[in-house]
Amino acid sequence: MAVAALSMSHRDGITNLEALQHYHEVTSALQSSLRSAQDLSSDGTFLTHFLLLLYDIAAAEPSTHNLWSQHLAQLLRIVLLRREAFGGEKYPFIIWSICNIDMYALFSGAGEGGFVGTMLESEFIPPPSFHLCPLGADGSSVVYGEETETMPTVLQFNYDVTILAVRLGLLAKELREEFSEQHFTADMLAQGGHFDTRLSQSRVQELQDAFRSLWANPSVRVLEKRSHPLSGRPRQILEHALSLHRASMIYSMTSMWPTQRLDEVPSFNSELEQYIGEILQMAEGIVSTGRLELRFIIFPLFMAGVASNSGNEKRHALDLIKSMEHENIGTNTSAIRRVLQTVYEKQAQSFMHTGHSLDVNWMNIMIEHGLQVVNFGL
Q1: Which of 1, 249, 288, 307 could join 22 via S-S bond, C-beta 3.0 to 4.6 A?
Q2: Residue 138's pLDDT is what?
Q3: CB within 8 A of 325, min separation 6: which ones?
Q4: In the prediction, which pLDDT does 335 show?
C-alpha cells in the first residue's frame, strides 16, 4: 500500500503523507514480529523487506537520508538464512530482481555491491530458467507455447549480459577505490603527475572482449535477424539485454575511473558512436510504441547522453528520458534527467575552456547534487 500510495502521490503532484504513514506502520509491525531466526527467514519478512527496498528507492530525495542500503543488507542476511533453512529459494525471480537493483547501484557509485557480489561469489544467482514469474510445478519459470522457440535463448543472453555487467560494476568500484587511494586528480595529471592505467585498461579490456563475444554468438545474431520481430516477454527481455550490453560497453570506455576518458583509446570513438546510436534507436522504438513501463532503458539513455559528442543526440536522449517521467513510481527519472542536463552544462563549460569535455565526471556531479541513484528508472 505504501508503494501504491507513493505512486499516486507522484502522479497527482501531492505530498506523500499517506505513503509515509503506511511505510511506518509496516516497519513497526515488522520490528515487533521478529523474535527469532525463523521469523527472519519467513516468506512474509522476505517479501516485506523487498517491498520496503522498492519504496525507499522510489521515495529517495536529494540530500536526504534513505534506508535502501539497510534493507539491501537485511535482504542479504535473510536470503542466506533461507538457503540454510530451506536449501533453496521459493522466489528466485525476486533474488534476480534484487541482483539487478544492486548492479545499477554499483554503476552509479551509490552502492557497494554487497548483495550481488555475495550472490555471484557464492554462485547463488538464479539460472535463467528461474528469472520469470509465474513459476511452474517444478519451480522453474513458466514458458508459454508461443515463447518456446525463442525464450530459452533470450533468457540465457540476458543472464550472460547481466553477469558480465555485474562483474564490470564490481571492477569499476575497485578501480575507483584504487584511483582514490593514489589521490590523483585531473589537475595533478595536467601538471605532470602520472597514473599508470595500463593494468586497469587490460582488466577492463578482458570484460569488453567478453561482451563482444556474447554479441557475436550465432544464436543471439539469429534472434536479431529474424524476419518476424519478437513480441511479448521475449521482446522485452531481449531489449533489456541489448540495451544493457550497449550501456555496459559505453560505461567500460568512459566511467571506470575518474580520468578514464582522458586515457581512452581513440579507436573506441567509432564503437562508442555505434552503441550510442543503437541505444537511441531502441529507446525511440519503446517510446513511440507507448511501452513506457520499460524503465530499464533510462540507464542506457543516460550513458548515451553522457558519452555522445553530438548536440542532437544529447538533446534526443534528454527528451526521451523526459517522455518517460510521468510513468514512474517516484521521482528518480526526473532527477536523472536534471543531472544529465547539469552534466551537459558542465561539459559545455569544459569545452569552452579546454577544447574538450573529457574531464567531466558525472559521478562527482551526482555527489555535488546529493543524489544517490540506486535505480535509474523507478
Answers
A1: 1
A2: 85
A3: 333, 334, 337
A4: 83
What residues in the chain have per-residue pLDDT under 50?
A: 1-15
- What Cα–Cα distance (Å) separates residue 109 from each residue in 51, 269, 329, 349, 359? 23, 24, 22, 24, 18
167-204 as b/e: b if 16+ CB within 10 A: bbbbbbbebbeebeeeebbbeebeeeeebebeebbeeb
CA 317, 318, 321, 322 torsion-angle sign: negative
User: Which amino acid appears at position 312 of this protein?
Assistant: N
The pLDDT tens digits for 276-322 are: 999 999 999 999 999 999 999 999 999 999 999 999 999 999 999 99
The candidate with the shortest Cα–Cα distance to 120, out of 153, 80, 163, 81, is 163
SS3 135: strand
Task: With beta carbons less than 8 A apart as the criterion, state whether 244 and 166 touch.
Answer: no
DSSP notation for 162-188:
HHHHHHHHHHHHHHHHHHHHHT--HHH
**175 CB-side CA count, 13 A:** 26
Distances (CA, A) of 252 to 28, 115, 336: 42, 22, 20
Give pLDDT, residue 34: 57
Q: Looking at residue 209, what is its pLDDT? A: 97
Which amino acid would we find at residue 51? L
The Cα 238–Cα 246 span in angstroms is 12
